[in-house]
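Morning - 3NM inputs below, output right after.
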Amino acid sequence: MPSKDVDYSCYLVTDSTPAILGDKDLVAVVKAAVEGGATIVQYRDKTSETAELVQVAKQLHQITKRAGVPLLINDRVDVALAAGVEGVHVGQDDLDLKTTRRILGPDAIIGITANTLEEALEAARDGADYLGIGTVYATPTKENTKSIIGAAGVQQILTALASAGHDEVKTVAIGGINARNVQRIMYQCASPEKKLDGVAVVSAIMASDDPKDATQHLCKLISQPPPFVTPVSRGKLTRDELVAKAPVIVKRMAQAKPLCHNMTNLVVQNFAANVALAVGSSPIMSNNGLEAADLAALGGSLVINMGTTTPEMRENHLRALAAYNAVGSPTLLDPVGAGATAHRREGVKALMAGGFFDVIKGNEGEIRTVSGAQGVKQHGVDSGASQLSLEDRIRLVKGTAARERNIILMTGSTDVISDGERTFTINNGHPYLGEITGSGCTLGTTIASMMAAEREDKLLAALTGILMYEIAAERAGVREEVKGPGTFVPAFIDELYRIRQECVNNETRWAQTAKVDLV
Ligand code: 3NM
């Protein structure tokens, strides 16, 4: 088979160690995986003697050949030749690509591991058929991996390959990929210019009690977009359209009264529940990850707020995120104090590697941390003085949203929000919001409530939430009885409630005070 016609979508890499294979028979597992739909197999055995490798390779080849599935050998060009298989996979420290090609000839399938941009570009230039790009996530299967690059690192490599004109080289991602994350990884690794051709897995199949079923399940997932991706036509959204649509969305949300599941911090639980009630959603303030699957089935949305976080909370957050992602229900991350401590910086990474967030909202320091910036210093959870110009903030928000393929909101005196294509600034709000606790957190609750009702265009939902929230603050701040932050809070909740009632009664004037610009 010409190597350009090879299907790399569900790539099995074997492992014969007891920790992964258990007491199963390697050949039987590969047979089951091929029956389950594995599209290409790499025999990877770092310890057996050469004669044994050749013998097992021949046995595996009988199975794969019958199914029309290519078999490659890890590292050992001699074994590949002796067993007469379709090709090899080499690492950066193995025999070099050009020599490998010279030995195996033009028709052999030759793949190489690439951990960096430079390695990927060099391998493509040297004529690799495919690249195994990783390590995506840390994995017990291979502990001596060079660096963990995440989906963002894979995407960067794909973009660079496309920019250098290497459209022809095929790519698979490897490292820590399994049925729980494969769809998100395929989605978040893709750059507009180049997508992954597949994923390579070891333990997800080799360690399974039922390798055929595990492979079938993986193949099915790989062939479909993740449930949280809505096929929204990202048409242009103008300020006027937003002003016209926002009240309609609030009305729809208030009438549906969707569940808004808040896993939030100890400080704002009561306030967040009151804000949810005022805007018209139905709050549940459960921090127990074990009940998240039942709650996710109710069709609402999830807020994960990292304030007052603990290691146990992180486990609960990850469980809940997986549950909402599995049914495609909207999720929002509020990485409170993300840049303040090492535990929180690590927490942001773990959450972003553990699932998909439709919206990540935070102040400048938090969003800089989310973007991967080093050396962000946050003193506690407050936003502090801005370090970046508006132009730089817009660039950062847009770039991070495009990379994550989600929506990023950076709050501040001017809010910046983007889905990577459409970017807006918002200048509504009131200074008292900065004088009370939980104003950022409960904006998250408001946005999540809107997303539960407007699932197609989540940027539109988020903008609606911001406008409702900030315009309510403006109206509260000028009320006669409001003398400061203390009297502001109840007036603010009243104004959220009033805007909701106005929307229900088709009174839409409030939205006309939107100070929104498409940038
Ligand atoms: N190569 P699992 S990671 C064989 O980063 C291998 O190059 C890697 O195992 C690399 O699917 C890896 O069980 C192991 O996480 C992947």
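Note: The chain has a mean pLDDT of 95.

O.
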